[in-house]
Amino acid sequence: VTGVQTCALPISFVRTKLRLERMRPGEILSVRLRGDEPLRNVPKAARDEGHMILGIVPEGSDHIVTIRRA
């Protein structure tokens, strides 16, 4: 797992995207999201960019989204 972050959209996906751009294809990033909007939008935006969502796991009031870099 490369990293974990907590933030609100749109910064959530901006930071996620920047981190993914620094990774090699196939590497895995875990992102901590808080709130409904980031949970809806970050996985969708990552999929739209060709990345694979490996899982979304609730953790208290947050969710951990695991993404495999395309």
Describe this structure in words.
The chain has 70 residues and is an alpha+beta fold. Strands 1-2-4-3 form a four-stranded mixed sheet, covered by helices on one side. It is globular. It starts with 5 loop residues before the first strand and ends with a strand.
Question: C-alpha Rg, in Å?
Answer: 11 Å
Q: How much β-strand is present in the residues?
A: 25-35%
Give, in order, the helices and strands.
EHEHEE
Helical element count?
A: 2
Helix content: 25-40%
Number of strands: 4
pLDDT averaged residue by residue: 88
Query: For the largest beta sheet, what order do the strands appear in spatially?
Result: 1-2-4-3
Shape, principal axes of CA atoms = globular
Distance between the termini: 15 Å
Major pleated sheet: 4 strands, mixed
Structure classification? alpha+beta
Uncertain regions spanning at least 5 consecutive residues: none
